[in-house]
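in:
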C-alpha cells in the first residue's frame, strides 16, 4: 500500500512538473513569429525612449491614461540586451507569466496548502488567455502578475505590501482599481478581528487618506473622454446592467469564455473550431463548485475565506456595473484580464476546502492533471497549429508566416535595391512608404531606419474610406516628392488586399506598378510591396484632377 502511495505521488509530481515546463515553453516558443507583430507593442517602447531622451513630455497614452512605466522600463532593458528583434519586447511579458506561476505557488502554499498551491499554479500555467497575453509585448502581459500580488498579499493579510502591489498594478492600468473591493473587505475583517474599534478606525482613516488620491486618479483616467468611450458604460445603462437578468447571464458566460478556449478561437479568427474546454462547460463546473464550497464554508464558519470569495464577487460586480459586457467581450477582453487570477485562486481554494482526505485530494489532482493535459493539447491544436497551417484569420497585423511577413518584405526590399535595379539612384538605402502606423512601427523597430528610410503615408487607422481620403490628400500634397522618390527607387509596403493599384491608376497616369507578395503559412498574401523600376519610363506624369 505504501509502495502504491509513493507511485501515485511520483506520478502526480512528474506530471505537474512536465505540464508546467510545457506551459513555460509555450510562452517562449516562436515568440517573434506567432502571432505577427502589432504596432501597439512598439509604440509604448518608443514613447518611453522619447521621454528618457527629452523628446517628449507627454506622460499619457492616446486613450488618456498614464503610460505603463513598469512594462516600458522592462521593455527598455530587454531591448538593451536583445536589440532589434520582434521577440525582444515580448520577453518581459513571457517572464512575467513565469513569475506569476511561481508566485501563485508561494502565496497559496503559505496561506492554505500545497494542494491549493499546486492547483493554482497549474491552472494559471495552462489557462489559454494567460499564455496568449504572455506572448504579446503589451503592458497587459504584466496584469496577471500584478493581480496575483494584490490577491496574494490580501490573503496573507500583509496590507502594506498589498497597497504597494495595488500601486504597481494601477501604474500598469487603472482598471485594477476594481480589485479594491476585495482588498477592502478582507482588510475590514482583519481590523475587526485583530484590533480594538478605536485603533481600527485610525488605521482605516489613514489608509483612506493614502489611497484616495490614487483611486481618484485611476477613476479619472478611466472616465476620461477617450477611455469613457472604450471602457465605461453610460450612467443610464448602469440600472439596465443591474436589473437585466439576460445581461447578467451574458456577462457570466463571457467571463468564463475568457477562461476557456473560446478566447483562443477568437484570437486566431476561425469561428468554426470548437473545444471541450468552452465557456459554458467551465461556467457550469465553477458554479457547482462555488455553491457547494460556499455552503460548506458557511456551515464551518470559515468567515475569512467566505469574505475573500465575496470580495472577488464584489470586484466582478463593480466591473460589470461600471462597464457592462464590454470588458469581457472581444476585442476588449484585455480590460477584464485582471479578474482571471483571483477567479483561479478562488477555484483552487474552494477545491482545497472540499477535499478532506489525502485520497480525495489525489483524485482531484489526477482530474486536474487530465484537464491540464487536455488544455496543453488544445492550445497547441487551436493556437500554434492553426497559425502554422493558416497564418491566422484575424486583423492583418497578426497574420504571420514562416518568416514574419513584415521582416520578409523589408529583407526583400533591401536585397532588391542593392542588386542595382535602380541604376539612376544615388541613395544608399531605399525609401519605403509604409501603409500606416501598423506597418510603420514594427518595421521601424527592426530596421532602426538604418537599412531603409521609412515614410508613414497616413496616421489613420485601417478603414478603407478614411484611408482612401487620407491617401488622396497625401499624394495631392506631396506628389512631386513622391514622383521623385519613385523614380529614384522607392517602395510601398502595406497589408495585402488594399487596392493601391486602383488608387494609383486613378490618380497617376502612366506610372505602372509591380507587386510582390509575402505569404502567410497558408500561402496567402499577407504583406505586399509595390514598386517601379528602370524598365518603366513614365515617371513625370501628373495626377488627374
Amino acid at each position: 500500500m505504501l509502495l502504491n502511495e509513493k507511485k501515485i505521488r511520483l506520478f502526480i509530481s512528474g506530471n505537474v512538473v512536465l505540464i508546467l515546463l510545457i506551459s513555460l515553453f509555450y510562452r517562449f516558443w516562436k515568440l517573434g513569429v506567432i502571432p505577427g507583430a502589432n504596432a501597439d507593442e512598439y509604440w509604448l517602447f518608443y514613447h518611453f525612449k522619447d521621454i528618457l531622451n527629452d523628446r517628449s513630455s507627454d506622460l499619457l497614452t492616446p486613450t488618456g491614461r498614464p503610460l505603463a512605466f513598469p512594462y516600458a522600463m522592462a521593455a527598455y532593458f530587454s531591448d538593451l540586451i536583445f536589440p532589434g528583434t520582434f521577440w525582444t519586447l515580448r520577453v518581459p511579458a513571457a517572464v512575467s507569466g513565469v513569475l506569476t506561476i511561481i508566485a501563485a505557488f508561494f502565496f497559496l502554499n503559505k496561506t492554505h496548502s500545497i494542494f491549493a498551491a499546486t492547483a493554482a499554479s497549474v491552472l494559471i500555467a495552462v489557462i489559454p488567455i494567460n499564455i496568449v497575453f504572455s506572448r504579446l509585448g503589451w503592458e497587459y502581459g504584466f496584469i496577471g502578475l500584478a493581480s496575483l500580488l494584490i490577491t496574494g498579499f490580501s490573503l496573507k493579510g500583509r496590507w502594506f505590501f498589498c497597497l504597494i502591489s495595488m500601486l504597481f498594478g494601477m501604474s500598469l492600468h487603472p482598471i485594477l482599481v476594481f480589485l479594491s473591493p476585495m482588498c477592502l473587505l478582507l482588510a475590514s475583517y482583519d481590523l475587526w478581528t485583530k484590533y480594538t474599534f478605536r485603533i481600527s478606525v485610525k488605521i482605516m482613516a489613514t489608509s483612506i487618506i493614502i489611497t484616495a488620491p490614487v483611486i481618484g486618479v485611476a477613476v479619472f483616467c478611466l472616465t476620461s473622454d477617450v477611455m469613457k468611450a472604450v471602457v465605461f458604460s453610460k450612467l443610464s445603462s448602469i440600472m439596465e446592467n443591474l436589473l437585466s437578468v439576460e445581461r447578467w447571464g451574458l456577462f457570466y458566460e463571457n467571463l468564463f469564455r475568457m477562461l476557456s478556449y473560446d478566447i483562443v478561437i477568437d484570437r486566431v479568427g476561425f469561428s468554426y473550431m470548437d473545444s471541450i474546454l468552452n465557456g459554458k462547460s467551465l461556467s457550469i463546473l465553477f458554479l457547482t463548485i462555488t455553491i457547494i464550497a460556499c455552503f460548506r464554508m458557511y456551515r464551518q464558519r470559515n468567515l475569512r475565506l467566505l469574505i475573500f470569495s465575496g470580495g472577488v464577487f464584489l470586484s466582478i460586480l463593480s466591473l460589470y456595473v461600471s462597464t457592462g459586457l464590454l470588458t469581457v467581450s472581444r476585442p476588449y477582453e484585455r480590460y477584464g484580464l485582471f479578474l482571471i487570477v483571483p477567479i483561479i485562486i478562488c477555484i483552487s481554494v474552494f477545491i482545497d476546502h472540499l477535499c478532506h482526505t489525502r485520497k480525495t485530494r489525489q483524485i482531484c489532482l489526477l482530474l486536474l492533471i487530465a484537464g491540464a493535459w487536455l488544455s496543453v493539447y488544445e492550445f497547441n491544436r487551436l493556437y500554434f497549429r492553426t497559425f502554422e497551417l493558416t497564418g491566422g484569420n484575424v486583423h492583418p497585423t497578426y497574420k504571420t508566416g514562416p518568416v514574419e511577413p513584415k521582416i520578409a518584405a523589408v529583407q526583400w526590399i533591401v536585397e532588391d535595391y542593392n542588386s542595382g535595379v535602380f541604376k539612376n539612384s544615388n541613395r544608399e538605402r531605399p525609401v519605403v512608404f509604409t501603409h500606416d502606423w501598423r506597418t510603420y512601427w514594427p518595421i521601424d523597430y527592426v530596421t532602426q531606419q538604418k537599412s531603409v528610410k521609412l515614410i508613414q503615408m497616413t496616421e489613420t487607422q485601417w478603414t478603407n474610406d478614411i484611408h482612401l481620403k487620407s491617401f488622396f490628400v497625401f499624394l495631392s500634397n506631396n506628389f512631386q516628392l513622391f514622383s521623385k522618390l519613385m523614380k529614384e527607387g522607392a517602395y510601398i509596403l502595406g497589408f495585402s488586399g488594399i487596392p493601391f493599384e486602383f488608387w494609383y491608376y486613378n490618380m497617376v497616369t502612366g506610372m505602372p506598378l509591380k507587386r510582390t507578395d509575402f505569404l502567410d503559412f497558408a500561402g496567402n498574401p499577407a504583406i505586399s510591396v509595390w514598386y517601379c523600376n528602370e524598365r518603366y519610363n513614365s515617371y513625370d506624369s501628373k495626377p488627374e484632377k
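note: The longest strand covers residues 525-531.
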